[in-house]
Protein: HTH-type transcriptional regulator KdgR
Organism: Collinsella aerofaciens
Amino acid sequence: MAQMRIKDIAAEAGVSPATVSRYLNNRPGQMTEETRARIAAVIERTGYRPRAAARNLRSSRTNLIGVILADIANPFSSAMLEGLSASAAARGCSLMTAISGSDPAKEAESLTRLIDAGVDGLVVNTCGGNDEAIAAAAGRLPVVLLDRDVADGGVDLVTSNNRELVAGLVDELAAAGCERLCMLTEASDDSPVRRERAEAFADELSRRGLAGEVVTLADGGATGVGRLDKTIRDYAGKRLGLIAVNGLVFLRLTEALAQLGPSLPAGLKIATFDDYPWNHVLFGGVTTAAQDTLTIAERVVERLSERIDVVTTTVGEAAKLAPKRIEVPGHIEHRASTSR
Amino acid sequence: MAQMRIKDIAAEAGVSPATVSRYLNNRPGQMTEETRARIAAVIERTGYRPRAAARNLRSSRTNLIGVILADIANPFSSAMLEGLSASAAARGCSLMTAISGSDPAKEAESLTRLIDAGVDGLVVNTCGGNDEAIAAAAGRLPVVLLDRDVADGGVDLVTSNNRELVAGLVDELAAAGCERLCMLTEASDDSPVRRERAEAFADELSRRGLAGEVVTLADGGATGVGRLDKTIRDYAGKRLGLIAVNGLVFLRLTEALAQLGPSLPAGLKIATFDDYPWNHVLFGGVTTAAQDTLTIAERVVERLSERIDVVTTTVGEAAKLAPKRIEVPGHIEHRASTSR
DNA sequence: TCGGTTTACGAAATCGGTTTCGTTTCGAGT
DNA sequence: ACTCGAAACGAAACCGATTTCGTAAACCGA
């Protein structure tokens, strides 16, 4: 018997397909302990597995969650994927993933491809440029944004508490005796996340009456390094503190500093976002604002599940959930780069 | 009209559902240019999208490729995922991903979950311990192994040309004047990849008449670092060359060396597998055996497609493809850590 | 013992495409 | 003009589950 169907199981167990279906989905309409056992035995013996396609067709539910990631090279993304995978599996869902490579066209294409595939919901770590399409998608199926918001803001978002993390890093640098602080960003990055961190940085400075500014590195080119060199030279010996706005910028910073020697120039303190494994090692350890990726992933799936349940439960457009912004606290890893 | 069905399109275009289906799958049974245009117009106007579940049910093809990755934190894996995503998308397929986290139990669970979901084929980067289950799966649907082989070897495998890469690194270190070479490995890693590299290393040494050995770091514990320290001390000043067998071991190595200072001890040369972004920066640049992840991914999907086509085309068990081993050449990135 | 309600389960419709098979139409060859 | 084969298309079966609706049995209090 190559492939068994539910009716074969039903026949063997002496019940109807409907009853087997009820067993498979352990439905409220309870069955005798005896029939349950009989069905279980047959399934066990035959190794029967229901065909997902048939199930999907009738129930219009796939137990699939679509995930669109902008940049998988970013450890934040890969950690997130692992977390999402685990959280989804815990709910019996699988992940369909698409990598946009930070290309808006690919992102848009992934969006329609995943929706066409029939995913129950969508997790989007957008690279920007598709705000309307994403908002439209959110109108047709459950969508939760990951880390990066869209313009009109009518979509659920899960993100780190960036303002607190910025404050934490500023604390570190101030405690290390810095008189002046710079936040390093990248020219091409105009994401809401970057903006939020930059704003928080400015707020923190003014709140404490510290001097400082946001410095843009021009995408790894000589310009950026030159500007950075200048910044450092201008303030060398004057207790300058640097914050890399994300892991990528930190990499650029490291490359630039490498030209000056393997250890930090005297009086220079640095800190960064995103906890890469190498942060333990570089400069004897770099103080890091670490995001709680596992919890973020869990919240994303949790929220998505809520929406999916609402969609499949309620009849009309009755109970539309209001869009929600969920902030997950991260924490500061204190390391040698901000010791006194 | 909430959701259109194929029969609605057919009605609007004045043809039968069968014809619309033929149009959607542009079947050999050609149709008049006129009907084709009429159908196209209706679909364009209504924005009709066929339901994947229905299609899957009847055709028992999902255009889904299952991917099981052992360790997504490894940049090799995330690069691979990006490549697979692109190659699959180019063939109109989506990816279902599962992350085993190097846990054999999770891997086994992912295996059944993806198969139950009805994927057309499976890409497995196994963490080991499921060789029989994987071989069994390969008997039921197309499977291509990624990087890591299974015991009995009856399954397709795509991997880097590890022997050549090892030879390349030995070349580098020899050219840098090393008199003695050590390959650093991790105790817990008994993968075929590690073994292959270790064997190639031994072969290269004897071929050139160089002294050297394989040193096992005990999983990041003090033992490993101690043993490493001893190794280095024993040979310091004697032109020792170190090869980290993979990125993780290189990280451990870096941590250990960090205790000795930010630059390499005099006369010590190092090289590693796996090109992380940080390899440019650490020790002024670390010579690296880089794998061609994009090509590997492309080959994997290519091979999987071949198998999928065979399965859906041939009637019986007629044309079984023989298992194939595909080696993709990588290349050596020469950097400062192996300069004379 | 009897109406009424719950519980356990079966028959059959249904989801929305694809595929098989048959019919009609069209064009070419003689 | 007639036959024949291929091309274009339609009718209906089909994929394998879920779900609705209905019914018989079991239960239950009065």
